TrEMBL record:
Catalyzed reaction equations: Hydrolyzes free adenine bases from 7,8-dihydro-8-oxoguanine:adenine mismatched double-stranded DNA, leaving an apurinic site
Organism: Hoeflea halophila
GO biological process: base-excision repair; mismatch repair
Cofactor binding remark: Binds 1 [4Fe-4S] cluster.
Full protein name: Adenine DNA glycosylase
Amino acid sequence: MSSAEQPKTAHEIASALLAWYDKHARALPWRVSPTERSQGVVADPYRVWLSEIMLQQTTVQAVKPYFENFATRWPTVADLAAASTEDVMKAWAGLGYYSRARNLKKCADVVANEHGGRFPQTEDGLRALPGIGPYTAAAIAAIAFNQPAAVVDGNIERVFTRLFEISTPLPSAKAEIREVVARATPAYRPGDFAQALMDLGATICTPKRPACALCPINEQCQARQSGNQEQFPVKLPKKAKPVRLGAAFVAERDDGEVLLVKRPDTGLLGGMTGVPTSNWTVRADGETGRNAAPFEGNWRSKGVISHVFTHFELRLEVFHAVVTHKPEHEGWWSNPDSLPGEALPTVMKKALSAAFPGLFKKGKT
DNA sequence: AATGCGTGGAT
DNA sequence: TATCCAAGCAT
């Protein structure tokens, strides 16, 4: 039995971490603070769920304004279930990973219509809902329902691979890490324990230059003892991002309105709004796809915008034309003033901005 | 079990 | 500028 599995160490880690959390917990809009919790305040499962979905692969800073907007506009799961998918996509625009928004709405519908408006309280029950995977199910079970679930996110992977010098590369190490986290998770305040680990990972046990001197569990940390903390976690090398080229077409009618189309519900930017584009492909000849224009027109290049997705870089040449006739085409014509309210992902805002500089400047919502 | 899926901030 | 990566999930 390694030191990682000794109950004494597990208890030391949990008690030191909770004591640190009581003093240093970040104040977050969706969080019940340790002080509030000690006064009997309980978490709202809806707000915990909403925040956890938004926080998947997304920074706290990016999530905050979106969470505030959603929680104000749709204060309960029933309100969200009553909303249209279109309005949810519009409100999610800019946050990325748009399948989360589609699944958020599906999940709200299931909870409202099949569970009487109450979230399941078990990991398995939560795991069965759209958009809820192993991490999110454990996080909601622990934070909202006080269950000793093993919560493992990227922060906690980093903390535990350092604590026990787990040198198996990620993602293979996930099962091993989950076992160690399960042993360390206390029955007492499991939700605060998970949140403490995430705060520790975000503020002290950072990917680069961790502040070990300030860490409440540095004496239990094997990597710290050997000075190798920055060598963990070990990760498999990433693949290079190919560059894809494409063309976007901003069609402006003589009354100033712009042609928008809804993208297919699956795949990249699924269900979101955009301008017509060519296919985006890797090509050596540098051709961006001018010949893919949706209809005849005096298409003039407005330059090339660049946008980096998770698995490729896109260089998009933006073409603009003023059309004096009314071409037959799918989609709808939108007044430029209403564009900020459309479900436009960032790359589409960039393309529109190439044709209409300043369109999406702050304050012009 | 690899791969597809956004965005913006930090370094 | 290039790279990393942030409270992952679905398939």
